[in-house]
Amino acid sequence: MPQLKIATGLLIMGLSLITTPITAQEYVNCLEIPSASSGPYAVMKCQQEQAQRLWNTINAQQQRISALQQEVTELKPKAAKVPGLLVTVNTQQQYIAGLQQEITTLQIQSAQIPRLSRTINAYHSKLEALKNKALKCRSGTRVIGQPSRWSPVSLCPSGYITVGLDRIDLLGRESDPTNQVNDFSCDDSGCRAWCTDHKCAVTSRCCRLQ
Question: Are residues 117 and 148 in the same domain?
Answer without folding.
Answer: no
